[in-house]
Specification:
Two copies of one chain form a homodimer.
Chain A lengths: L3 H6 L7 H10 L3 E4 L4 E3 L8 E6 L2 E6 L5 E7 L9 H4 L5 E4 L3 E6 L1 H10 L1 H27 L2 H18 L7 E3 L4 H8 L3 H13 L4 E3 L2 E3 L3 H8 L28
Antiparallel strand pairs in A: 1-7, 2-6, 3-7, 4-5, 4-6, 8-10, 9-10
Helix pairs in contact in A: 6-8, 6-9, 7-8
Chain B binds a DNA duplex (30 and 30 nucleotides) through α8.
Chain lengths: 253, 253
DNA sequence: CGCGTCCTTGACACCAGTCAAGCGTTGTGG
DNA sequence: CCACAACGCTTGACTGGTGTCAAGGACGCG
């Protein structure tokens, strides 16, 4: 069974067998991290890139008053800090939620990948751009949808993203977040998060039992949430126009 | 006086004189667009890249019920769609707010830039990553700050971003948005946007007169908003570790 | 057993949305 | 030149979604 990392990147680029082999090599030396540990803290200037292979992590910022805002959920196959070599220092932290398997890829390895593997470079670009698209959709969600729709929307997104890496079946997946963490993601109070989940359960839109989320009727939940998967850009781009490009061209914005 | 575009990129990379000349060339053929016009619509697959040279534009999504969510404000020097060649099609639209001067840069020109100008490539990477950082901060703002703090935070951000391209003085700048547009940015109703502006005025945190925003005490407004400019990454990264890199390496994540 | 963590419930307060109405300025056509 | 419409701004009254405070229950773990 291929790594979720490769499964994910294949949604954004047409990897060759050689690309896949190279990526498997890169992910050879893994590391286990327990749940609720910082991988990177705000202000750090890490050298190299972290990649989640198993488990769930999050990007977060702490506010003056001690509240925590979670701005992204990192699933298997997601990069933590692909940008840091350019920006200089982290403007947010990254912490595990569940126990995680993590790879650290040295900077020179990333450079080698992007120099010699055009399609991998394209895939990395694609991954950051999808992260940005998710951020935009979360922003819309936060501003325009009420607590129940926002929650439903997140559950739809997680279903699709986990399916893309082979970690969800047709209508259910493991949900590692506590209600407190969900509240930090969705910017709700814990109390209201609890009530919102109850109301979704009562409406028979979701079932949530021992850390597993089941969606009895996926289309109904999507309809309720106003969810469309377009922003996840999981359909492979048409590459007919890209035939015969040189290496570097494929990595261009 | 140098173009705001070059002023902006210099915050993220060390451009040479040759880089600057090349960028000026690229921006030679401008186009005027009136206020409140679409530059790109959701679903478009534009070839090439749009760049704002003068004026203000925005990224937006329309919702089913007709509401509009503005997810980004594009100021002079900002790119509209640096990503589109990778993602395939736009998941949001871009519209002008004020009258704008816009450049369209052909795809092959971008490719030429990134192939032969390492520092420009780095600057383009930097620009997209800062866009992403702004998005994260807006997400925090949307979730955690009330209407008045959120508004104040936006005004602080605009001050710093406009100063970075030479378009704001020490404590004031032209604010082209109507209250209705501000409401779409901040996810408030028009009525509440109006009341929020009044309360900021009454607290003497801002003055707003004929499309010009003046901030009597910048530090006080920043304090009120919980604003720190760190996420804008305007300090140039330390490049001592990057000496002697080959062309492509500088463009690597 | 006792403690911590997570989940749950009720009462109450408040921020922000909605509805409705009116004002001022600008621009346009008769 | 005036009438009128369009647009942006402003105000008041009411509603409702969400936060806060407080308390308690269920479960796991040392």
């Amino acid at each position: 069974m291929p790594s979720p990392f490769i499964l994910k990147l294949q949604h954004g680029a047409h990897l060759t067998d050689a690309d896949r082999v190279r990526l498997e090599e890169v992910c050879a030396h893994t590391r286990q991290v327990g749940s609720r540990h910082d991988l990177i803290q705000e202000g750090d200037q890490p050298d190299g890139v972290h990649l989640i292979l198993e488990g769930v992590a999050c990007r977060y910022k702490m506010l003056q008053d001690g509240r925590r805002s979670i701005m992204a959920l990192l699933l298997p196959g997601d990069f933590c800090d692909l940008h840091i070599a350019i920006l200089g220092e982290m403007d947010h932290g990254i912490a595990t939620i569940s126990p995680c398997t993590v790879v650290r890829i040295a900077r020179h390895t990333v450079e080698e990948l992007t120099q010699h593997h055009a399609e991998i470079t394209r895939a990395l670009w694609w991954a950051t751009l999808v992260d940005e698209a998710i951020l935009r959709e979360w922003l819309v969600s936060m501003g325009q949808r009420g607590a129940d729709q926002r929650t439903a929307h997140l559950f739809c997104e997680l279903l699709v993203r986990l399916q893309a890496v082979g970690l969800a079946d047709a209508n259910s997946y493991p949900l590692w977040l506590t209600q407190g963490e969900l509240a930090d993601v969705l910017a709700l109070s814990i109390v209201h998060m609890n009530r919102t989940l109850q109301s979704l359960r009562e409406a028979n839109l979701i079932e949530l039992d021992r850390r597993r989320l089941t969606i009895p009727d996926v289309e109904r939940l999507k309809g309720f949430a106003g969810f469309t998967a377009r922003y996840l850009h999981l359909a492979k781009p048409d590459r007919s126009a890209a035939r015969g490009r040189s290496l570097n061209e494929a990595g261009v914005p």
